[in-house]
Amino acid sequence: MSNTTPDFQTDAFLLDSYVGKTPLVRLQRLASHTQATVLAKLEGNNPAGSVKDRPAYNMIMQAEKRGQIKPGDTLIEATSGNTGIALAMVAAMRGYQMKLIMPASSSQERKDAMRAYGAELIESATMEEARDMAAQMQSEGVGLVLNQFGNPDNSEAHYLTTGPEIWQQTGGKITHFVSSMGTTGTIMGISKYLKEKNPDVQIVGLQPSEGSNIAGIRRWPKEYLPTIFDASRVDRIMDIPQIEAEKTARKLARKEGISAGTSSGGAVWASVKLAEENPDAVIVCIICDRGDRYLSTGLFSVVDPE
Predict the structure, then answer these.
(1) Are residues 129 and 268 in the same domain?
(2) CATH classification at residue 120
(3) Span 208-233, pLDDT tens digits
(4) Active-site residue (options: 41, 50, 52, 179)
(5) What is its EC number (predicted)?
(6) pTM of the predicted model, to two decimals?
(7) Which of 55, 58, 174, 180 lies at a CB distance of 3.0 to 4.6 Å from 217, suitable for a disulfide?
């Protein structure tokens, strides 16, 4: 029997291996009345359950590499949910204290998941207030704000991973990319990559219609618009009605077997609209997370008329 210590992989290597590489699946029924191909990128398959695992991992690891932070430090972030959960996971693995500020209206499942990873949760009235509170805490020396809204490591994560995956998985045939916009990191990074590969790929960003409240995506007031956002990288912006996003999230689960949240329902609704307009299109949309984060909201308790 060998006395040598096994060469186990480091936690960083393990996360690097398992964050991303998510499946791309074709919708079989919701777009069956069109001739287009509608593909869903299932980001709920990431370790902490959302597309935000990618930037959370990259933001912390890159900050470490630059010497900005070291294990034992306190990190602060304003979040609507998924980024907070992902950051809490990586922080727990790397040995950081995590303080998360989020709107009180966020689902209980999201709050519980953050606390499960050991994060301290501070509730706010709005996302704008959460961002202001995070900045104030940093100015008071409480810790470092990673600032997903202005951190280029956010969009870089998608430029380095999500974009190449989509290009490879579609064999370069993608014609339209659809993504809800919150921090805008996902759409910025993927747009940069896809446009380098084929400038004709249409990048479609989604925001809630006036008066709609859709978890994870925003119509930002000008003063709070994420600084990583570059409008020139988005070819079209579509408004998503809350009622349609919710109905489509339920249809996605009941007709396709894909359980996801409201913003993902909005992405599929928009993708089907594009499929109706473009019969030869190959459309990829981001399914941001899993539907189990929304069970307490009653999203899936509604029975819609056929």
Answers:
(1) no
(2) 3.40.50.1100
(3) 999 998 888 888 888 889 999 999 99
(4) 52
(5) 2.5.1.47
(6) 0.91
(7) 180
